[in-house]
Amino acid sequence: MVLALLSVLSLSSVFASTAISKDLTSNYESLQKSILNKNFDVSKMTVAERKYYDSVVQAALIKSGGKSFNTTENIKIVEDILADKDNQNEPERTISGYVTTSGYSMATSGSSIHHIISVGTAGAIFNAVIWVVLSFYGGGSVEASIRTLIAKYGYNEARSIIEQQVVSKIVNTLIRWGMEKSLVLSLTYNITTTIIQAAIDPGDAIANYIDSRDAAPNNGWIDVAY
C-alpha cells in the first residue's frame, strides 16, 4: 500500500513538473512573440517582457564576452542596436567608453580618421545581438538556431529573417556611428552570408570584415573619417 502510494505520488510529481515546464515554455514563447512584434523596443514592453528581455540580453553579453562584459553600457548598446534606435537621425559618431577623440589626418582627403570601437569589442557586441535575435527563433547555439530557421522557413526566408532582424540593424548602427552610408549598405549581403557561414563566431567575422572595408582598413578598429 505504501509502495503504491509512493508510486502514485512520484507519478503525480512527474506530471506536475511536466505541466509546469509546458506552462513556462508557453509563457516564454508568448513573451518572445510579443517582444518580436514590438521590434525589441523596450519603451513598448510590459514589465514582464522587459524583465525577460533584459535577462536574455545579459546572458548573451556574458556568453559573448564574459561576466565583465555584461555592463550597463553594453546592455544599452545591444538594446539600441536591436530596437534600431534613431535610425533617421544624424550619425552619432561616438560611443561613450569606446571612442578615441584623437584622429589622424588622411593624406588623400584632409579628413581625420577616428576610432569608433575596437574590432574585438564590436565582435562581442555583434555576437550578443545575433544570439539575442536567434534565441527568439529557437535558441541554442548560433549554428543550431540557423539550422532551425532554415528547417522551419527554408533557406531564402531564413536568410531574409537574419537580414531584417540582425543585419539591417547592424548596418543602420554603423551609419549612425558615422560610416559612409553607401559603403555600409554595400556590405549587407556579405554580412548576412558571414553570419550564416561563420556560425561559431559570426560577430568577430563581421567586425573584421567591416574593418577591412572602413576608413583605415585592417588596423583592429572600426573607423570613420570626418
Short précis:
The protein is built from 9 helices and 3 strands, in the order H-H-H-E-E-H-H-H-H-H-H-E. By secondary structure, the chain is mainly alpha-helical.
Percent of sequence in beta strands? 5-15%
The largest pleated sheet is described as: 3 strands, antiparallel
Low-pLDDT ranges: 14-24, 87-108
Our measurement of the CA-to-CA distance between the termini, rounded to an integer number of angstroms, reads 83 Å
Helix content range of the residues, please? 55-70%
Q: Please, what is the average pLDDT?
A: 81
What structural class do you assign from the helix and strand content? mainly alpha
Net shape: globular
Order of helices and strands: HHHEEHHHHHHE
Query: Largest sheet, order of strands side by side?
Result: 1-2-3
